[in-house]
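DM from R.C. (forwarded with permission)

"hey, sorry to bug you on a friday — could you get me a structure for this? deadline for the figure draft is monday and I only need the backbone to look sensible"
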Amino acid sequence: MVSWPASAANDSIKKEECKELIIDIPLALEPPRWPECCIYRVPKRLREVKHMAYTPRLVSIGPFHHCMRKELKDMEIQKLRYLRDFCYRTGKSMENLACIIERNEVRIRHSYSENFLLGSKEFVNMILLDAIFILELFWRKSEKSMAQKDYILSQPCMERGIRYDLLLLENQIPFFVLEELYCGDQQNEAGLQNGKLQEQLLIKKDILVELSCRFFRDLYSDEQPDPKIGEVKHFTDLVRRFFPPPKPKQKENEKHIKHLYTATKLAGAGLKFRPVSGRSLLEIKFLENTCLEIFPCLNLSWLLACLPCLKSTCLSRVQRFLEIPALRVDDKTEGLFRNLMALEQCHYPFETYICDYIVLLDDLITTKADVGLLADKKIIVNELGSNAAVTDLFNKLGHEIESNGIFYLDLSKELDGYYENSWNRVVATLTSVYFQDFWRGTATMVGLIVLALTLWNFARLLRK
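My reply, with the result:
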């Protein structure tokens, strides 16, 4: 009988134990995120700040909130009605529509940041119902006669709630699904043919984008989205495109400014705030006369404060202005910005211009006085009722947000440089104390004249 050494026996036991610990890694392991991915679950750190801002209340779209709560299930009946009416109106069969979804099922699943355990049939039915619900809703919105009779559109409160739910990041389906269903079989035929059919397909796609923009019109009010809006991934992405970004001028490796003075401090240093229209919401400009940069002593704001009639003359050009497009703040504003920022955090981490805009406003607004100042200047249209509510909103919007700050870097430097110029603060103090209005300015001038005459007489007496 052969006896093995004790060390060899121990090695054999250890090898057996190691075999049990080996992890079986599948050869076809899926990547952590597919290239098509564009719809995300909101990161936990953002959801914990205010989870209801990311949660649908009336209708669920897509798999993240599919049949999660009773109040969302009620709208499923309306989806079935819309599907029936859509098929009757367009003459398309449910089978053909379902085939379109089945053909794109893998691509649709890859558009989400998570895998779902829904079977193929259940997943296809869910996407079909949600997509047709959106298409039929948009069509009825464009037809006034239908809108007045529609269960949703005839109730402004419900329509507004549905519109809000459709922009939530977790409540999306890929936009290409809507294009496939809206264009029908032409989508495949156009890939094989050129000419007229392809042209008709492009027209149909443009019409769908236009219908989508009309439905979300209230979110961009006076702004008109670019007709060539580019490839739309979903509605959250579409709404983000309503607000074109400012052009950054940051140089490589340039340090970001972490601090900006508040609106009241800047106003106290003589900066004037002015609302503007017909411009992107994010296009904020600091206007300063070149001569004032070289010769700050030419600041004549004290004279304009005394004589407002001179503001229409060239003297107004020596004023420093911060032009900010007006922003309406209501009960949906927070949810809108939170979802746009969440999209940027997940999908556009190096193009966070919405996040940069919110961080800039958060810096300008620290107290109720800052909101009051901007509201008086018609820059903030406060529909929340109190300045404290608006202050709290902007102070919390930037929590847990990573912002690279490049889009407003130059603006921040200009504003900081303006405030830190001691001459600007001196002139502003003199203006507010001695030249606040016509009467105080007149009294100051009379006082200066009397003082000058007194000194002149005193000097004359000394000469004698």
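R.C.: lifesaver. The longest strand covers residues 272-276.
me: no worries. The beta strands are 272-276, 285-287, 321-325, 327-329, 380-382.
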